Amino acid sequence: MRIRPAVPDDAEALTDLHLDVWDEAYAGLIAEEILQDRRHRRQARIETWRRRIEGSEEDHLLASDDAGRLLGFAGFGPSPDAEDQGVPSLQLIALYVRAEAYGTGLGHELLAAAIAGEPAFLWVLDGNQRAITFYRREGFEFDGTTKTDPVGLEHRMVRWQTPRP
């Protein structure tokens, strides 16, 4: 397995990975129409990913197998309004792995490569117990803040200290 920074030429493969992992992670948690709509807008999503990789303040890491097939990705970066919200300045924006890689340690490796043991925060979809359990093992806890996103209710999780090994 290899973890590396995303480059603009990864936009198409990253889009396909993103579509697949959402289907795997959110089936039954969000409306099927949302998942289908994302697939119908694949070409626009490719261009969005290309722009995000080229010009965003967030960074993206990709995990691939020995054959180069993408298995997961992480997005992270500074949050411009973190200080106003009283959370760490580093936000984990996304962390996804293919279902076939669940339980292999890939999520932990991506998280470690992205934010190491730094204080950080993230948003997790209500009911996504697999993710909640994972993030708790990594030292994140709910801080009581929620927001409503087009896909559903999200809860903020914060990690202030480096987790114990």
Helices and strands in order:
Layout: E1 2-5, H1 11-26, H2 32-40, H3 42-55, E2 59-64, E3 70-78, H4 82-85, E4 90-97, H5 106-115, E5 120-125, H6 129-137, E6 141-149, E7 152-159
Antiparallel strand pairs: 1-2, 2-3, 3-4, 5-7, 6-7
Provide an overview of this structure.
The protein is an alpha+beta fold. The protein has a single domain, classed as Aminopeptidase (3-Layer(aba) Sandwich). Helices cover 38% and strands 30% of the residues. It contains six helices and seven strands; from the N terminus they run βαααββαβαβαββ. It has helices at residues 11-26, 32-40, 42-55, 82-85, 106-115, 129-137, and strands spanning 2-5, 59-64, 70-78, 90-97, 120-125, 141-149, 152-159. Helix 1 (11-26) crosses helix 3 (42-55). The mean pLDDT is 94.
Low-confidence stretches: none
State the helicity in percent bands: 25-40%
Which range does the strand content fall in?
25-35%
How far apart the termini lie comes to 22 Å
Q: How many domains make up the 3D coordinates? A: 1
- Anisotropy-based shape: globular
How large is the count of helical segments?
6
- Trace the largest sheet across and list its strands: 1-2-3-4
What distinguishing features does this structure have?
165 residues; alpha+beta; Aminopeptidase; 4-stranded antiparallel beta sheet; 3-stranded antiparallel beta sheet
